């Protein structure tokens, strides 16, 4: 066969495999990526067509006269000058609305004076989760010189640049900390692992750069950044959603009052979820990490069925790790040796706080052995290095059909209880978005919302919950509507109106208390300080 025919045959196979993937192996769960197929194009076009985007967005939300605080969310450009311009556009739009709708001009004082209560706004900066589309063949050796050869190396570099820009602007203009109030990681949950964000959130809460004690010209202290992270929203397996929620609060320097977005996996029924998804398709590494995390969590929390469940997970871990970390012919032929669970768990934890890498050891014990077909003597450091090796990345990302068993359901139900208690004790707030959750999580009715399981009238294990509107321009809603949906969902569950109203009022107060906006000055001073800030930047 000549070269031309070979190329034609390879192209045919690529097209065939792609069509097979779309028609047969397509995702069966209606998550965020499924939802975005219908809405992302229109949303992007609307953003471009609106000349004054921020003014339109802010005005639309401030039509609700009951609003006291509102956080807007936006990604920022990588270049600092463009980042600064985008933030300035947001502040100018807010200033214009205040001057036109909330203030009058005083000739004697030569300034704008508020004549009615001003709603406070803040901007939470998004880090958008995306798949790694850089160099297709990862290589730890090449990655030392070029980050694209590291798994998510280029994307992590972009996040680091964005957080440095944000820190620099907040340091340069201390009053800006009143408006740049938080950071978030959102969009396609399945695309980017939580460990990619660990150094980003670590940097954002580094006391050496975020000098909270520093005062500005008014004697006010610089406000700390609040943290929020979208997790447990868009998952292929409930364990994946629960694991990411726990990883966020455990490894991203979360404090009491920080928030997790959605958290659907924490409150939905595992058995109802299985009924709709008896068999799923997930990458091998996702299945392995789910079991490693679950094993670690359950082994630290005693339960009656612990012994049998741990034995079940040990077998799953042994099989999955054996398939992923095979590197010699002897192992492929069936004489596979598993890796000790303790080493696998230590390697999993190491992803979030990588120590200094001994390159000489890696070269000798990993790269040379792999190239010569010798067995690798695995340790936590080498397991983390395998994340950047094309041979192991390929096996990690290989999809498997995964049947949800009764043991899996018992694991999920127990971990939902454990994680609920853990978040409740730590004071981590769950942001619930009823309209968004119903669409993205494919919930049949508002009454199935996870809120009703996470926060109940007389439950001592409650998680602090607040109601948000997610993306109002997409879902055509506001916080008042979202509270109404939850209220009527309670009435449908035969809860009295008095109890429902008291509960809703508590949730409303949670929203105010958990907001990252902490303006304490008078409205007149706020207008003055905003004007001075815009003149400076």
Short description:
The chain is built from 24 helices and 11 strands. It has helices spanning 3-23, 32-49, 53-62, 80-101, 140-143, 153-172, 198-204, 238-251, 264-267, 270-276, 284-299, 306-324, 329-335, 341-350, 359-372, 380-385, 390-396, 406-426, 434-440, 451-454, 472-475, 479-492, 497-514, 523-536, and strands at residues 69-75, 103-106, 111-114, 120-129, 180-187, 226-231, 259-262, 279-283, 399-403, 429-432, 464-467.
Word description of this protein:
The protein has 537 residues and is α/β, with parallel strands linked by helices. It is built from 24 helices and eleven strands. It has helices at residues 3-23, 32-49, 53-62, 80-101, 140-143, 153-172, 198-204, 238-251, 264-267, 270-276, 284-299, 306-324, 329-335, 341-350, 359-372, 380-385, 390-396, 406-426, 434-440, 451-454, 472-475, 479-492, 497-514, 523-536, and strands at 69-75, 103-106, 111-114, 120-129, 180-187, 226-231, 259-262, 279-283, 399-403, 429-432, 464-467. The strands form three sheets. Strands 1-4-5-6-7-10-11 form a seven-stranded parallel sheet. Strands 2-3 form a two-stranded antiparallel sheet. A two-stranded antiparallel sheet has the order 8-9. Strand 5, helix 7 (198-204) and strand 6 (226-231) form a beta-alpha-beta unit. It is globular. The chain starts with a helix and ends with a helix.
């Amino acid at each position: 066969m000549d070269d031309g025919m070979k190329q034609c045959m390879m192209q045919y196979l690529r097209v065939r495999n792609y069509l097979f993937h779309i028609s047969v192996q397509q995702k069966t769960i209606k998550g965020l990526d499924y939802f975005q197929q219908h809405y992302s194009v229109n949303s992007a076009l609307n953003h471009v067509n609106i000349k004054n985007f921020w003014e339109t967005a802010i005005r639309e939300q401030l039509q609700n006269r009951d609003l006291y605080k509102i956080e807007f969310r936006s990604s920022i450009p990588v270049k600092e000058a463009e980042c600064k311009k985008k933030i300035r556009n947001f502040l100018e739009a807010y200033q214009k609305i205040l001057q036109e709708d909330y203030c009058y001009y005083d000739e004697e004082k030569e300034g704008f004076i508020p004549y009615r209560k001003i709603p406070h706004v803040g901007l939470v900066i998004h880090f958008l989760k995306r798949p790694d589309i850089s160099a297709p063949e990862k290589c730890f050796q090449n990655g030392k010189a070029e980050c694209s050869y590291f798994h998510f190396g280029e994307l992590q570099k972009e996040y680091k640049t964005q957080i440095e820009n944000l820190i620099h602007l907040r340091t340069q203009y201390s009053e800006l900390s009143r408006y740049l109030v938080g950071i978030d990681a959102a969009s396609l949950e399945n695309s980017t692992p939580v460990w990619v964000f660990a150094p980003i959130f670590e940097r954002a809460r580094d006391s050496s750069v975020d000098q909270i004690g520093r005062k500005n010209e008014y004697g006010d202290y610089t406000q700390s950044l609040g943290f929020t992270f979208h997790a447990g929203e868009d998952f292929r397996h409930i364990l994946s959603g629960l694991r990411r929620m726990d990883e966020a609060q455990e490894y991203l320097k979360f404090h009491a009052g920080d928030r997790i977005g959605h958290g659907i996996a924490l409150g939905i029924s595992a058995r109802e979820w299985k009924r709709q998804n008896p068999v799923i398709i997930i990458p091998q590494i996702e299945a392995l990490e789910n079991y490693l995390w679950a094993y670690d969590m359950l082994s630290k929390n005693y339960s009656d069925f612990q012994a049998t469940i741990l034995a079940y997970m040990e077998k799953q871990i042994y099989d999955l790790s054996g398939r992923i970390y095979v590197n010699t012919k002897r192992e492929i032929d069936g004489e596979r040796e598993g890796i000790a669970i303790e080493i696998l768990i230590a390697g999993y934890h190491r992803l979030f706080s990588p120590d200094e890498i001994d390159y000489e050891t890696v070269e000798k014990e990993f790269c040379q052995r792999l190239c010569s077909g010798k067995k690798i003597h695995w340790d936590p450091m080498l397991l983390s290095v395998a994340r950047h090796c094309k041979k192991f990345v390929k096996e990690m990302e290989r999809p498997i059909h995964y049947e949800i068993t009764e043991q899996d359901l018992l694991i999920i139900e127990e971990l939902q209880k454990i994680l609920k208690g853990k978040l409740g004790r730590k004071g981590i707030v769950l942001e619930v978005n009823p309209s968004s959750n119903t669409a993205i999580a494919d919930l049949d009715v508002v009454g199935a919302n996870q809120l009703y399981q996470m926060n109940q009238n007389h439950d001592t294990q409650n998680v602090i919950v607040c109601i948000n509107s997610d993306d109002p321009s997409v879902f055509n809603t506001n916080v008042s509507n979202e509270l109404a949906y939850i209220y009527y969902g309670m009435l449908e569950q035969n809860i009295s109106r008095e109890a429902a109203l008291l509960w809703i009022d508590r949730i409303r107060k949670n929203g105010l208390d958990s907001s990252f906006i902490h303006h304490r000055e008078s409205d007149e001073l706020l207008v003055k300080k905003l004007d001075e800030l815009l003149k400076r930047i």
